[in-house]
């Protein structure tokens, strides 16, 4: 394999640039030329492809976002788009491709592989919602960004004897909520993976105030319901709280990657190139028990399950 | 004067704790005992008053929020509440009080002074909307918090070729928007003090994309309209943008104070005590041209005007 | 078990407060009273022991340092000191103790256990140099602090075409250097666990400048030699570099813990109490493959080995 | 004036990139082409000159260091070097130049102006040691960086009952020490502009410990003496402290600029270009009482004096 491509797709995640850098530099050390495919599958189909050298990826290790850009492109679900993509790759002499992104991106990657084009995936999404891997690239950074934001809003909540319901990202996964809630001493963490008892939450908040706490914090995963709705449900049962919702929004997605995401991105990117040069395809690099492993796209979609760390959710209960 | 009180009122602001610490320690150095009045005017009326020593304010210099808590208490607009407040102060042997807060808090402070009770104000609010002072306590920290958040959302916007409309705090003042917008290279800054031209904004965004920018940023002061409304207005004129609103919300208010707010809070707090011991009342400490000055509450309400730095708003136009 | 003690010993590490909080709150949920032993073994021997309630540990989760203080006390190596310690514990009705600290602290803990006093250890040290555990409490925070500092010094190095030799902590372990070096794109990472080739380093630096890099970064673990010495050795071979040493020093040790260290500290602390209530002693809680496990002090001292992630050190070579 | 140059010289300072960006963009809005002169006076003499467009300065507003690089070049003190510089400028059709840097850089700028070449200076240095201006570009960022580091080391000092002597930058000026010391609640701030009394410092430290403080912090300006020397002097008088020196070093210089430095850099850069187009030379833009003003290089060197805010130094005394 003499020439490969690399692209990012779906929502951007901190650490994606670290992975791109690793693809380029590990590639060069293996004698492989690397080409950037910009703007995801849209750029692939439209031929937005250009050479990336070691120099081009200098200084990007600590940057948030993705230097390769990303875009939505539902058309890639159709065979026509996929074949156009393969054609573009061949036109540029590219023999394999690394796709960095989430679940949706991997569907596209699998289709390329099914069309006989060697493809390796790298799980890059802040949501930590990909089957088979303990962590996705960007998750650690996002958790720390959220925790910093929660530290900030607690200052304010504590100054006003207030209860805050903070909605955090995660799509259908509660991982961001669990980790950031436990890290922030939240009185309740509400996630999609576990039913919650609104009366218990209200009781815990009241107990907290009774014991002298000057504020209450509920961390709510977006996959359950909007923050305003949970506030409404709480107020329906109990009107006495000085309660507000906070939606953290886009700030969760950006920012300089943590050390862990830089290391994970570098490891993922390097391994992905190695796999291509070893003739592999249809695989995703993942991390399990601190080891870089591989899983088939097929297994990720059909046989493996993402398991959030529910014992941490449980642990939080004892610490409020 | 042998015994004074200190309280925070209204929205909390980073640097309030620095001011409280300075009141206590400068007080002690002048032989004055300091008492905390917690939860603002509500606590005052209800007698939430206790001694504060030098030790009690150790380690609070770098904390956000206010260790004295704050609360809304519209009842203090009535004479009855005010007289109850004076009574509580006298009961504790307190001869003067420092009130740290915003415009509404100063109304209460003025009424205390009008009832013959020595009162000095300290302008503590993130909004920078108090007449007579160049800066309020908390403003510098909030601007830096907003800028950091804008740096983060730009990562994401740039990865997706997106336009973001970010709504920032400031009540009726555009100061936070002007400073954070200029600091973040915003394509447009929309503030209450200046009419805006939606066609110009759209043109600037388009010019930016045409020149190769991969994103657009509009910083919107909350005093103009909600972010969703500005998005709607833009889309009414032009549907082609990939545009989203972001409401920064409560994270703007908390966080560790910047060096400037720690220094300003320390200067304000120390000067406030000195003024009380000099027999002054009905005044607010403020900062003009880097000097700590005093203005009468009367002038702040009736004769002085807050002037945002419109030349910075103007400057931004040349730099996008 | 109705009453236990908790102490921190040795160098402080971010996350220690999270562990103390978890000991107290998990303890309370199990019906166990918790007592603080302040200033480490010195405080133990001198009877610095007081009750800690759930309220006392409110708001400490995000604080650096240790609220229980720490102190050096070599006298605890002697049997006399140890017996005095046990006596103090019994005098206060304490039936078990959690010791949070590093290798030296565990020697003391083991001696308590050997005297028949139930003792559980929690590995709290920034150096990541304890056998049997993948990570120690504080390591993740320190790595991120170092990476942030390296991002900063790179700004400056790049502005001057300079080579920087940055000495980081870690005692005899290279872990901090490996993680922070890989995260910062260091041209070389010099650690105690691997011999280094000064000519190779010089060649890599020269190659970097030849390829257009505007700076060079060498991350040096303190366990190898002082930064000034490595600068001297490089200059002995090649005088052409604009080279400087930077010793990061104490800033590496403090700061608010990362999410990961807050979660790890909470998990460690909670598990340590549970072990005491289960009648265990002479054990340390550790983390292996993302699971909280236990190892005997004996094994930690004699049979287990700390293994830094040398594959990351290797990986860095391909990415410079 | 149709074509101007911009360069940075001397030590880099956060905000320099904001100033460069403003020179380019304000220049373009005035119909002036801007050229980068890289590596300071060395690059000038050697003809390292290339066109800078609006696009080239996109995304640099929030970067530390200087994208134009900097270098020492004592040879520029000689007339020969200066004339070579003028020649290079003329060769590229450049009619005026903006020099961003400190005192030494302004000497070079003045010599260019004396040779009849229009030159405007921008005070960019972290040390705040330039006559005539209240603040230099980079000072606010550095103070905040130092304060953050002091917050961190205090965590550790407090955990060990330790006194820390922290040496901060500032060359012959005490400004960084005064601002960061007051912001950090330092027990003593030692600066070149004021004699200090070692017995008073020791007394204050002892009083602090006696009143229950668990640590002591001395902030020392590098212009007075090295930290190790002050530690030695203290220990000569009193051996009882657990005392250590910390030299903050290079981390003070880098990092993303604060909002204030981004605004100041933008204002300075824009005004500098305007002055050139107005036919001015031999001037430096400065900030006095929040207004951008100009002073002649001559006055900066000979008639104006830099005044650190000694009242803040005084204020700190009352707050420890």
Automatic annotation (TrEMBL), chains A, B, C, D:
Mg(2+) binds at residue 103. It is found in: Cytoplasm. Allosterically activated by ADP and other diphosphonucleosides, and allosterically inhibited by phosphoenolpyruvate. It is an enzyme of class 2 (transferase). The active site is at 127 (proton acceptor). It catalyses: beta-D-fructose 6-phosphate + ATP = beta-D-fructose 1,6-bisphosphate + ADP + H(+). Substrate binds at residues 125-127, 162, 169-171, 222, 244, 250-253. The keyword RNA-binding does not apply. One of its GO terms (biological process) is canonical glycolysis. Its EC number is 2.7.1.11. Residues 3-276 form the Phosphofructokinase domain. It holds the Pfam family PFK. ATP binds at residues 11, 72-73, 102-105. Keywords: Allosteric enzyme, ATP-binding, Cytoplasm, Glycolysis, Kinase, Magnesium, Metal-binding, Nucleotide-binding, Transferase. InterPro entries: ATP_PFK, ATP_PFK_prok-type, PFKA_ATP_prok, Phosphofructokinase_CS, Phosphofructokinase_dom, PKF_sf. ADP binds at residues 21-25, 154, 185-187, 213-215. Its main location: cytoplasm. GO terms for molecular function: 6-phosphofructokinase activity; AMP binding; ATP binding; fructose-6-phosphate binding; identical protein binding; metal ion binding; monosaccharide binding. Pathway: Carbohydrate degradation; glycolysis; D-glyceraldehyde 3-phosphate and glycerone phosphate from D-glucose: step 3/4. Its cofactor is Mg(2+). HAMAP family: Phosphofructokinase_I_B1 (MF_00339). Catalyzes the phosphorylation of D-fructose 6-phosphate to fructose 1,6-bisphosphate by ATP, the first committing step of glycolysis. Belongs to the phosphofructokinase type A (PFKA) family. ATP-dependent PFK group I subfamily. Prokaryotic clade 'B1' sub-subfamily. Homotetramer. This is ATP-dependent 6-phosphofructokinase. It comes from Atopostipes suicloacalis DSM 15692. The gene is pfkA.
């Amino acid at each position: 394999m003499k020439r490969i491509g690399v692209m990012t797709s779906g929502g951007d995640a901190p650490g994606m640039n670290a992975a791109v850098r690793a693809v380029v530099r590990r590639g060069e050390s293996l004698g492989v030329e690397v080409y950037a495919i910009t703007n995801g599958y849209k750029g692939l189909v439209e031929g937005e492809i250009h050479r990336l050298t070691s120099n081009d990826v200098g200084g990007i290790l600590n940057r948030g976002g993705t230097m390769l850009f990303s875009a939505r492109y539902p058309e890639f679900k159709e065979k026509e788009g996929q074949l156009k993509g393969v054609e573009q790759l061949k036109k540029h002499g590219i023999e394999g491709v690394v796709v960095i992104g989430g679940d949706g991106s991997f569907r596209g990657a699998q289709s390329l592989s099914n069309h006989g084009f060697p493809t390796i995936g790298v799980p890059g999404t802040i949501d930590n919602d990909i089957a088979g891997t303990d962590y996705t690239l960007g998750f650690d950074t996002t958790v720390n960004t959220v925790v910093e934001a929660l530290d900030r809003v607690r200052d304010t909540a504590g100054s006003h004897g207030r209860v805050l319901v903070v909605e955090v990202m995660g799509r259908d996964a509660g991982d961001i909520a669990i980790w950031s809630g436990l890290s922030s001493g939240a009185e309740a963490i509400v996630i999609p993976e576990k039913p919650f008892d609104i009366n218990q939450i209200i009781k815990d908040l009241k107990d907290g105030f009774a014991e002298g706490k000057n504020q209450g914090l509920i961390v709510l995963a977006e996959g359950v319901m909007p923050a305003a709705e949970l506030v409404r449900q709480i107020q329906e049962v109990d009107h006495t709280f000085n309660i507000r919702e906070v939606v953290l929004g886009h700030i969760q997605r950006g920012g300089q990657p943590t050390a862990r995401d830089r290391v994970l991105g570098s490891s993922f990117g390097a391994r992905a190139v190695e796999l291509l040069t070893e003739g592999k395809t249809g695989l995703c690099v993942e991390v399990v028990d601190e080891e870089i492993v591989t899983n088939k796209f097929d297994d990720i979609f059909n046989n493996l399950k993402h398991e959030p760390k529910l014992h941490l959710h449980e642990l939080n209960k004892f610490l409020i």
